[in-house]
Amino acid sequence: MRRSGQLKAAVLCDTEVIEFDSPWGAQHSGVLENFAQSVLNGTPLLAPG
């Protein structure tokens, strides 16, 4: 028996992509953007503390 050393991941597992249409994702990305701007440019934080 000869082995090639390559593994086929599709044989071992399945992949499922789930997408949600929710405003929470947008809110989270906005807060992260604000944090990055605060670190880089001194922009005031939306939620300091």
SSE string: HH
The number of helices is 2
What is the overall pLDDT average?
A: 82
Radius of gyration: 21 Å
What are the segments in which pLDDT stays under 50 over at least 5 consecutive residues?
A: none
Structural class by secondary-structure content: mainly alpha
Net shape: elongated
Tell me the strand percentage band: under 5%
Distance between the termini: 63 Å
Total number of strands: 0
| Helical percentage | 40-55%
Largest sheet descriptor: none
Provide a quick synopsis of the model.
The protein is mainly alpha-helical. The chain has helices spanning 9-12, 23-41.
Question: What labels would you give this structure?
Answer:
mainly alpha, 49 residues
Describe this structure in words.
This protein is mainly alpha-helical and 49 residues long. The protein contains two helices and no strands. The radius of gyration is 21 Å and the shape is elongated. The relative contact order is 0.10. The model has no long low-confidence stretch (mean pLDDT 82).
